[in-house]
Amino acid sequence: MQRLTSLGGAEFAPGAPYLNTASGGLLPARSRAAVCEAVADAATYGTMGRDYFGPAEEARRGFARLLGVPAERVAVGSSVAVLSAFVATTLEPGAEVLVPEGDFSSLVNPLAATPGITFRTAPLDALADAVRPTTSLVACSAVQSLDGRIADLDEVCEAARVHGARTFVDVTQAAGWLPLRPTGFDYLACGAFKWLLCPRGTTFLAFGEAALADDGPRPRHAGWVTGEDPGASCYGPVDRPATTARRYDEPHALLPYVGAAASLALLGEIGVPAVHAHNTALADRFRAGLTARGLAPRPAPGSAIVSVAGPPGAAERLAAAGIRVAVRGGLLRAAFHLYNDADDVDRALAAIAP
Questions:
Q1: Where are the beta strands (DSSP E) in 126-192?
Q2: 3 state DSSP class of 313
Q3: Does pTM surpass 0.85?
Q4: pLDDT at position 220
Q5: β-strands 96-100, 166-170: how paired?
Q6: CA angle, 196 as apex, 194 and 200 as ends, to 5°?
Q7: Mean pLDDT in each 10-residue stretch from start to end of the chain (354 residues)?
Q8: Burial class (CB in 10 A: 0-12, 13-18, 19+), 294
């Protein structure tokens, strides 16, 4: 079997196998250095930094390049839950929302908690078939957090189009390793602190072309940063909102976006196709090793996330060996990224089933 080395080079030195990117990624050295410099600057230039808007704009462009969408259709924010709450404000009273069973709460709960909507769920593999003429919005994660299952987004978006429903896709567990074709969606959210290796507090919302039309949704949390000229929008109502998706920006935290600009540049240099090939090869090696030990990993090959019901004591053995995984829904969940290699896989397998 091919021995796979990491793609991260000198950017990462985890010390022990870190297989928990689905919970939170590791910060590259360049991003850590950029944040530390910005923290030092705050002692002289204040908490707005030398350039408050520059890093967010650079991160916006970096995310847009990775996803293949125009930067003009990308807004910056703080969390997927806030973005989901914004999307919920676009729904009419009585609207029907369809989501997969067991999808991540940050996406689902703000929609479910919206007064007056009809909330439905369906199995992920039957989601497209569950769309009906009364459905107003279909929301789903591109990759499931619990076990790494990959949604058929083309099928879901086509079913939504046929029935006149809008689509809201969460790519938090996909962006950075899974090549995506972001077409056919209305809203696309991403928490960037996992596979995109950004500090927590970095989140993006991309709008489909139709969703960003002149008669698009009202910016519900628009502050001064959303003005076409932010410097002239500090007092009173913002009477000239930005003509791009920036009119939906949250007033962003500076430090996370300083780190995000550097992290997204690194991923842009490596390229998502290379990360995808690397991550899935490691995950498939892990999957094969689990199967050889009589265990039943999921999902099928193709995902960078592998979950399994481990034998008794497996979680404790992994922790004792310093190997970072997650336990979700009674499953051990391992997630493979560019700072992992074949030795990480083999050490994890040895700890799970000696």
A1: 135-141, 166-170, 187-191
A2: coil
A3: yes
A4: 84
A5: unpaired
A6: 55
A7: 74 94 98 98 95 97 96 97 96 96 98 96 98 98 97 97 97 97 92 98 95 81 91 91 95 97 97 97 97 95 96 96 96 97 97 91
A8: exposed
Distance CA 52, CA 109 (A): 32
In the block, residue with structure tokens 């091919």: 2
Contact 207, 245 (CB under 8 A): yes
C-alpha 8/C-alpha 310 separation (Å) is: 29
Q: Residue 281 carries which side chain, given as an amino acid letter?
A: A
Q: How many residues does the chain have?
A: 354
Neighbours of 245 (CB within 10 A): 26
Give the Cα separation of 5 and 338 in Å (integer).
9
Residues 6+ apart with CB under 8 A from 255: 35, 38, 39, 199, 201
Q: Among 69, 80, 78, which Cα is nearest to 103's?
A: 80
